[in-house]
Queue: 2 jobs
Job 1
Amino acid sequence: MHLALCLCAQIPRLALATKLVLIMHHRELPRTTASGPLALRALPNSELHVHGQRDAPLDLNALHTQGRRVALLFPSEDATPLSAAWLARDPRPVTLVVPDGNWRQASRAARRVPGLERAERVGLPPGPPSQYGLRHEPRAEGLATFEAIARALGVLESSAVQQQLEALFARMVGATLSTRAQARAGMVATPLPAAVCGEPLELLYRDAELVVVNKPAGVLVHRGWARDGVPALQRLRDQLGQPVYPVHRLDRATSGVLVFALSPELARALQEALSAQSVEKHYLALCRGHDPSLSCVDHPLAKDKTAPARPARTELRLLGQFERYGLYAARPLTGRLHQIRRHLKHVSQPIIGDVRYGKGEHNRIFRERFDFHRLALHAWQLRLRHPRTGQALHVQAPLPADFARLLVRLGLEATVHAHA
């Protein structure tokens, strides 16, 4: 690089309580567009570890000490968004582990590096899409590793830290693109093609303070990195032209009712209502098995193998049956990870199409016999009181076309209409 483009004198030295641990695949180290190492230069309390080398396997169990809280920044369905509430649950300083590289390299590190299975999985809070073009991002939600680090430290440390790092990243992008003869005056922004913005979401309810949508199956609620498709949050934000704040989650494979607030304050109020069990959520689940006497599953669930089990209850009602299969209405009374799916597995009534907790034999039957290729779980109805007005709201999400066609073939569509 030309000396005029060198950034060494412009790199801040930010002494933070948060310790950054960057994990890079050995093939990423020589790449000039790898942005993670620049963060190491700016953060003295950081370290680099290399994975993917057969003769030098990586083990990060030593990161777990009594004095620090270890968090893995990686998008997944079980990741907890970084927030002030998350920080308040544990006062210890954070060791933030960030896997760098392409999606495949980063996901392998998250799964395979010893020690990371013990880390708390965290995700980024909602934010704008990247405006930089350092690397081609095939998805609108794609972020450079440096951007992800800056946004995470904005929560863990302060907005001032985030702003300093983002300013440094902007200079890095400008310098890198200049060497490619692509720089223009100042920072270069790469417009996103319209094709990556995602289809508009079906609005089930909207007022000046909250919006309820019908989420399609296969769509994540929150931002991922580069290969998760356009998340519902970003679709709705672009559709409405204003910020939106998710109140709760649905698994990627689950369709149906999803609530967003139009302000952080209302989002917190609705989340408190969910925690207090004053919001009713009802799901439809097609399962292998049918038991009219099954009315409730009261079985503790743990977030992962290292976490303690917490109380979990799901109310169930059999609506109808077809051969060996039953259609249940399920109401979770607690909000544990994959609660309905895990509870139905626990009582030997696994949901059709569930590749994680279900039965492969029955999933294949529905693919081959009924051309049904998804999880048969739909967030059907939501009942709550508006946190501002006190108005009782009852929102129902129509079944997706593929699920509706399946119930018609099974002769169960009338059962759904009877209980709507």
Note: The longest strand covers residues 313-322.
Job 2
Amino acid sequence: MLSRLLMSIGIARSFIGAPASIEVIVADNSSTDDTAAIAAAHGARVVPVEKRCIAAARNGGAAFAKGEILAFVDADMVVNAQSFASIVECMLDSRVLGGATGVRLDRLSPGIALTFGMMLPMIWLTGFDTGVVFCRRSDFVHIGGYDETRLFAEDVDFLWRLTRLGKLRGAKLIRLRHAKAIASTRKFDRYGDWHYFTQMPSLAWRAWRSPGSVSDWARRYWYEDR
């Protein structure tokens, strides 16, 4: 999947006037596969990040980036060809603090569609989204980057803190809905198209009875599932 992402990034880079200005960094979060070799073969800079945590991987990549604008994307996504051109254009506006492109899924089924549909009201209410998440480096540093104590939902927390900063500055987050990334449904392929409805109730119950069990579940779901 990483090759697919990096090929799409290569296409998106060609849509701006200076493709070389887009620096591509792959945070190798203690992978046990060919992540580093694949990234290097596509000309990406590989940054090893030992701490097994999505937030740590994002922070680790950002620490080595040289650009004024930071953009984050998961390795199993595909970026839209207009992504970088659209990000550069909107970030010329000082009233824009950052934002996200949003996503569409690489396949749909009744279970996946219903799961995705349940998340839409929260996106509409908060303005938070996923896909390619972007902001200025200075603002990233100002809010302390991603929270490495969180094993999941680190992106929601990050955008929430970015929004609070925006309120102080009269700036806002935007959604680049015309440049949506394609998100993988590999977790649905692995656990079933209805697994959110079969697993989430029991997860909520365990969270109430034993908060520590949520961390155990997150490690199995996001970090230990090969």
Note: DSSP finds ten helices and eight strands in the chain.
